[in-house]
Request: fold
Amino acid sequence: MKSRLLRSTLTHNVFSLYAGQAAIYIAPVITVPYLARVLGVSEWGTYSFALAFSTQLSLLVECGFGVTGNRAVATHRGQPAAIGPIIGAVILAKMALIVAACGIAAFEYARIPSFQHQPALFWFSVTSGITQGFSFAWYLYGIERIALAVGIDVSTRVSVAASSLLLVKSPDDAWIYFAAQTVANTLAVVGSLLYVLRANAVRWPGLPAIGTMLRQGIGATLSRPGFGVFTGLNTFLLGVYASSEVVGQYAGAERISRVVTALPGPVCLALFPR
Reply:
């Protein structure tokens, strides 16, 4: 009976993740052609450059906690008192990483002229990446509330896609996409945090625990370097040296390749907490 229940839960989790992935990739089918047409090749390249930078900041703040935090919560899923320090350690570690992300953003803003010409686009892309990286999905995956995590993610993406279609009308409006993303991410973080606080009493650990969490997170991040390459690092590096037109042409093809590389992801995420 227990084995049947576990299989049923696992099947539900896998189905939820694939349904979420389908929704996630359907939205760009609508928004990418629209934004490319409205923004034009040059501004689409600038937008893609900012999106790639935003993605790298998100990966920095997330710092592999989707693996390490997920694993720690899943390990102590039946011990609520043990989960409190884990949540506190991850939150404080992410706060430290946010400070580092802001420092990197300030450095890149001063170094790259194309960012200085569009400050709203740049800084909203920064806040978009930081708020996305601060997600509590790692906790929801760890307690196997995967359908809830997927629902939050899909709702966020759909609201951003709708905002883009309604509000982005000219090349000067590219910043609106990142502003909408920032608002949606912030609401998702606040909602998830309220859920976490209702289920657990967060305890703030000492510096050694935070350092351990950071070290494990960095190790998890470095163990999957291909993920960073296929989520915008190449686009960002190209944008540092090439024109906006070249970046725009490359970014369109790169967005398509992500679909193929992400196909096994839901099965991995559903199995990992076990």
Remarks:
- The chain has a mean pLDDT of 82.
- Residues 116 and 247 are 18 Å apart (CA to CA).
